[in-house]
Amino acid sequence: MGAEDKIKAAAEKVAGKAKETVGKVTDDDKLVAEGKAEQAKGEVRDAAENVKDAFKK
What we know:
This protein is an all-alpha fold. The protein contains 2 helices and no strands. The protein has helices at 3-25, 29-56. Helix 1 packs antiparallel against helix 2 (29-56). It is elongated and about 45 Å long.
């Protein structure tokens, strides 16, 4: 996994967690859902890169 891809995946996870937290504090279900979706996107990106790395070895 390239450093840039790792950073992007981590950034998506952090941003998603922040959105989810703000949504919970403000009782905004839509923002909570967006945050969870963004975290999931980061997890998928991370998993995809791990698969790529496995095939490079």
